[in-house]
Amino acid sequence: MNENLHSPQRRLIELRMEHADLDNLIDQTEGQRPLDELSLRRLKKRRLLLRDHIARLETQLDPQEPA
């Protein structure tokens, strides 16, 4: 059971959930006035890093077949 808690598939789900949470937070932050541009840039940078991490993990779990 402990193996399932640390599986790559579970990690991928957690990363996707965090990415979705950041999307919502970015939307909320963009709607605020005055706009906190520094916080917004940090959130977007974190979201981009998460997207890259998700892509790497997806490639590891389902590698591309050679052409």
Topology (elements, then pairings):
Layout (H helix, E strand, L loop, with lengths): L1 H4 L2 H23 L6 H25 L6
Helix pairs in contact: 2-3
Give a verbal description of the structure.
The radius of gyration is 16 Å and the shape is elongated. Helix 2 runs antiparallel to helix 3. The protein is mostly helical and 67 residues long. It is built from 3 helices and no strands.
As a percent range, the share of helical residues equals over 70%
The portion of residues forming beta strands comes to: under 5%
H/E element sequence: HHH
Task: Provide the residue-averaged pLDDT.
Answer: 89
Shape: elongated
**What composes the largest sheet?**
none
Poorly predicted regions are none
- From the alpha-carbon coordinates, what is the Rg to the nearest angstrom? 16 Å
Number of H/I helices: 3
Structural class: mainly alpha
Distance between the termini: 38 Å
Number of strand segments? 0
